[in-house]
Write a structure and sequence with these properties.
single chain; 287 residues; TIM Barrel; eight-stranded parallel beta sheet; globular
């Protein structure tokens, strides 16, 4: 039976994962210093076809000059497995020790993951088309996968879905449920939701981030540094949550009991585990 994915203090925090174009090397260090939990240097959508080779050179030069040398939050999104650039992108990732993971766009088959994992790096598949959703059971169980993510914008484009409508919300929630279930069933880290395109609307972003946090997502992909603070705030346990969780943990540790009452409500093993997760999340977020 697969292990159940749960948050603990050793789980790498990935509330925010910030994209930076591979064609903009002057932004690499700034992105790593922006405060996101991880950074993805993008070789795919953010880079024009005639600049792919130059973008790879920019990443190589950045690493050669010491960039990201001591930073395990530096990942690379390669071009998808059907493109002419895929093999060269993977070769670059395999050559650079500073690259901590391969972000695999338009993931559709376990074979795509196996090719990416041949770099020796963990793989974060992005599920962003219908075939990827239909292949979730294969993708989540493939060797090397540590966390799934959802490319909601590309997914809606392929299906002809109208963004910001009730219909779109229902469809995207359906896919999110599947990503969460396959992640948990395969013992993966909590998945990442797709980008929120309007980086100026921090109020709606915060509300959305809270919503997916309550669903069980671990964080979001980001396209602008301005999105980092609202998402971090949304993913932090509230003061009331932390106070309740700490009381539950204190009672459990002091008494050794696995069944007691707090605030007139029954507490047993699953509730205690949840309380420990909240305490760990709060400590990790403020560390």
């Amino acid at each position: 039976m697969a292990a159940v994915a749960t948050f603990n203090a050793a789980t790498p925090l990935m509330r925010t994962v910030l994209f930076v174009p591979g064609s903009r090397p002057e932004r690499f260090a700034k992105a790593l210093a922006a405060g996101a939990d991880a950074v993805i240097i993008d070789l795919e959508d953010a880079v024009e076809p005639d600049r792919k080779a130059a973008a790879r050179d920019h990443i190589r030069d950045f690493v050669d000059q010491g960039g990201g040398a001591a930073d395990t939050r530096f990942m690379v999104r390669v071009n998808d497995a059907t493109t002419q650039w895929f093999a060269d992108d993977l070769a670059l990732c395999a050559q650079l020790p500073s690259v901590s993971a391969v972000v695999l766009p338009k993931a559709e088959t376990a074979d795509h993951v196996v090719q990416a994992f041949a770099t020796g790096k963990p793989v974060l598949p992005i599920v962003e088309n219908a075939q990827g959703v239909l292949s979730l059971s294969q993708l989540a169980a493939a060797p090397g996968v540590v966390r799934l993510s959802f490319g909601s914008l590309d997914f809606m484009l392929e299906l002809g879905t109208t963004p910001d409508t009730e219909a779109a919300h229902g469809l995207l929630e359906h896919v999110r449920y599947q990503i969460l279930m396959h992640s948990a069933a395969n013992g993966l880290a909590q998945p990442l939701d797709g980008v929120f395109p309007d980086f100026s609307d921090t109020e709606r972003l915060h509300a959305h981030a809270q919503h997916i946090r309550h669903m069980g997502f671990g964080g979001m992909l980001c396209i602008h540094p301005a999105q980092i603070a609202p998402i971090h705030a949304a993913f932090a346990p509230s003061a009331a949550e932390r106070e309740w969780a700490q009381r539950v943990v204190d009672i459990a540790d002091r008494t050794g009991s696995s069944a007691f009452q707090v605030d007139g409500k029954m507490v047993d093993v699953p509730v205690i585990r949840r309380a420990r997760q909240i305490v760990a999340m709060g400590n990790n977020a403020t560390a």
